[in-house]
């Protein structure tokens, strides 16, 4: 949306909130102009993160404005939804009074409900800010796989997803994530897309701590839709320069055990795992050569290695992945909704929102994300560093 149109829309929505809340607040407290000032600041600052993000930000005024705009965006989102819910409640109360003669004490309901909207939106935004800025907790998930070879029992993958390095997520935030992952001692690390929100020139120094990730078999990355917004080819080169292994509709075969002296091919193959990665589900819209293809990612994979794991940014890749014969797909993209009410809209676009799900003979694990996008706010959808362990399915 053009910045001018966004500014006009934002101003109109703030005017709606002001008309619905401020007259009622004036009935309750002489401090109601503070609410008017907060709404004015919010309306003026929300467009700022969309102005220009390239080049030198100068120290700090630019960053401060971006922070202010994004925090305002999160507060406004909760305020707008709460105002709509208040209006719906007031409408129901009015209908009850008209149809059933219910006595409604409007002199108390109107001002106190307006105050409740402001308090609720502010508290949710404060809690959401703290949730977003803390280092994600480790979520441990066991994935039971039928026919898993004994040599792969206990194989671990640490998954990071949707970090969104950008205006408010910088190198210190990334370093905390790297330190937390390295303490897990995972066999492999998977980054399932939407790593960045900006150009290589802008974010190179802030992404650099990822070079310190350590796992027995290395760190593997697939592209998300935001990599294509930010210049995917340049980012692929940069991530490879850092020592990360970017999988573009391709796979690697991981030898998980020392098989020197293996008695036969079966013993060799049972200790191997195919780890594949596809480009983002929408990548073909940006570059036809990057069209996502779970079947192509298995091209020339050893047919006797039956344990196959796919990294795919969007859960929507799961249908083709299940047809291709994977046992597990690791995805992100949804953020688990990040905060209300966006969690209600995720199922309209994606088959799974968060957690471990079954699709035919394949498991799909969807991370809620390790960072956040846009407003520094998470409420009801905690960020996570996921440690997945492959185990033999019982029964």
TrEMBL record:
GO terms for cellular component: membrane. GO terms for molecular function: metal ion binding; UDP-2,3-diacylglucosamine hydrolase activity. Its EC number is 3.1.-.-. InterPro entries: Calcineurin-like_PHP, Metallo-depent_PP-like, Metallophosphoesterase_sf. The keyword Membrane applies. Keywords: Hydrolase, Membrane, Metal-binding, Transmembrane, Transmembrane helix. This is Putative metallophosphoesterase. It comes from Variovorax paradoxus.
């Amino acid at each position: 949306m053009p910045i001018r149109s966004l500014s006009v829309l934002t101003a109109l929505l703030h005017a709606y909130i002001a008309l619905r809340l401020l007259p009622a607040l004036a009935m309750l407290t002489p401090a109601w102009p503070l609410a008017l000032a907060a709404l004015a600041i919010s309306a003026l600052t929300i467009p700022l993160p969309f102005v220009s993000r390239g080049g030198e930000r100068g120290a700090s005024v630019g960053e401060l404005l971006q922070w202010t705009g994004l925090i305002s965006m999160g507060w406004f989102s909760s305020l707008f939804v709460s105002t709509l819910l208040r209006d719906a409640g007031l409408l129901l109360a009015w209908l009850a009074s008209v149809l059933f003669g219910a006595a409604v004490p409007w002199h108390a309901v109107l001002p106190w409900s307006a105050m409740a909207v402001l308090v609720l939106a502010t508290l949710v935004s404060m809690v959401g800010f703290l949730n977003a800025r803390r280092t994600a907790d480790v979520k441990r998930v066991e994935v039971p796989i039928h026919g898993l070879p004994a040599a792969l029992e206990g194989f671990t993958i640490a998954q990071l997803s949707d970090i969104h390095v950008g205006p408010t997520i910088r190198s210190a935030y990334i370093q905390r994530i790297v330190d937390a992952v390295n303490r897990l001692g995972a066999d492999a690390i998977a980054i399932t897309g939407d790593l960045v929100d900006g150009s290589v020139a802008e974010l190179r120094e802030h992404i650099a701590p990822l070079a310190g990730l350590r796992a027995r078999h290395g760190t593997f990355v697939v592209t998300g839709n935001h990599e294509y917004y930010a210049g995917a080819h340049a980012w692929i080169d940069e991530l490879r320069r850092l020592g990360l292994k970017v999988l573009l509709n391709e796979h690697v075969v991981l030898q998980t055990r020392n098989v020197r002296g293996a008695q036969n091919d079966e013993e060799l193959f049972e200790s191997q795992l195919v780890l594949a990665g596809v480009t983002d589900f929408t990548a073909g819209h940006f570059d036809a050569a990057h069209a996502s293809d779970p079947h192509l990612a298995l091209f020339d994979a050893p047919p006797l290695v039956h344990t196959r794991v796919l990294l795919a940014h969007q859960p929507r890749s799961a249908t083709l992945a299940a047809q291709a014969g994977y046992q597990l797909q690791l995805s992100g993209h949804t953020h688990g909704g990040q905060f209300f009410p966006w969690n209600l809209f995720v199922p309209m676009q994606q088959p799974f929102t968060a957690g471990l799900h079954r699709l035919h003979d394949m498991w799909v694990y969807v991370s809620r994300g390790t960072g956040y996008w846009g407003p520094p706010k998470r409420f009801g959808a905690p960020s996570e560093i996921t440690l997945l362990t492959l185990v033999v399915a019982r029964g």
